[in-house]
Write a structure and sequence with these properties.
The relative contact order is 0.15. This protein has eleven helices and three strands, in the order E-H-H-H-E-H-H-H-E-H-H-H-H-H. The termini are far apart. The protein is an all-alpha fold. Strands 2-1-3 form a three-stranded mixed β-sheet.
Length: 309
């Protein structure tokens, strides 16, 4: 390798979806609309929960945290992309790229852990209802959220420090609309074996572990629901889990789709499109899933708008 190729670049180029100038206004308008809906929808969920004392329960405490994380999750990628489209630029500085990658990993991890914690909350509520108020006390809820933050930040910090040890070529093109970890690692000129091993282990432990916990919780929930004698009781128990189960399916379904498409064709436009489903569409749909199927949230939203009127 020549010495000139080991120079650390000052910026990366985010190639995004399409280089066709005619499509850029359409992409800009679509992403801006989805981003505004995402922020407004999740913010309304948070305000509704805060304004209604009846919703100051563990389940809605976790939901409000999930909504805040979804706002931050989308905000790590979409605003920069909108600025680049508006300025007709694909550049992002090395420092901004590493920072964006760090926060993206943090908020993906938080989404993952919060969905797992919410599954555990439903497991205790349905399988051990008499112990629910004692088990899911306020202190435990705060500790679970705090633990999720600590693990996510440490995980993101480890990946970021490992990336900082890599040597990059002078001209770097990332076939994505943001600095995604896998894409950044595989633009390096130096050996990325340790980074790949860490990425695999993290996916198994921090991705597969929570998913296994969610599946275990819902297997126990399903057994408990089947044991309920009345049809009305079964419907009520299932309805408390339906929204969360829909969000979990959407989150993991789109996430697995992204990484399958990335493995098949790392530099293709299909990977970027799949990532939009994962990073923009899923956080945008979450508030609708929870509000449309949840009478408590509907009542709180009506009360919130009534107060403002």
């Amino acid at each position: 390798m020549q010495p000139g190729n080991e120079t650390q670049p000052l910026e990366f180029l985010l190639l995004g979806f399409s280089e066709d100038p005619a499509l850029q206004p359409l992409v800009f308008g679509l992403l801006l609309s989805m981003y505004l809906v995402t922020v407004a929808g999740n913010l309304l969920i948070v305000l509704a929960i805060l304004s209604d004392p009846h919703l100051h329960t563990p389940m809605y405490f976790f939901l409000s945290n999930l909504s805040l994380v979804d706002i931050c999750f989308t905000s790590t990628t979409v605003p920069k992309m909108l600025v680049n489209i508006q300025m007709q630029s694909k550049a992002i500085t090395r420092a901004d790229c590493i920072t964006q990658m760090f926060f993206f990993i943090v908020f993906v991890g938080l989404d993952d852990f919060l969905l797992t914690v919410m599954a555990y909350d439903r497991f205790v509520a349905i399988c051990h209802p008499l112990h629910y108020t004692v088990t899911m006390n306020h202190r435990l809820c705060v500790q679970l959220v705090l633990a999720s933050w600590i693990i996510s930040v440490l995980h993101a910090l480890l990946h970021s420090l490992m990336v900082l040890q890599l040597s990059f070529c002078v001209h770097l093109e990332i076939h994505h609309f943001f600095c995604e970890l896998y894409q950044v690692i595989h633009t390096a000129c130096s050996d990325t074996f340790l980074n790949d091993v860490l990425l695999f282990l993290a996916a198994m432990l921090l991705g597969g572990g929570p998913l296994a916990g969610i599946l275990y919780s819902y297997s126990k929930i399903a057994s408990s629901i089947c044991a309920i004698s009345s049809a009305q009781g079964k419907h009520k128990a299932f309805s408390t889990c339906a929204s969360h189960l829909s969000v979990v399916s959407l989150f993991y379904g789109t996430g697995i789709g992204v990484y399958l498409s990335a493995g098949a064709a790392p530099s293709s436009a299909s990977t970027s499109i799949a990532s939009v489903m994962y990073t923009v569409v899923t956080p945008m749909l979450n508030p609708f899933i929870y509000s449309l199927r949840n009478t408590d949230i509907k009542r709180a939203l009506k009360g919130l708008f009534g107060q403002k009127l």
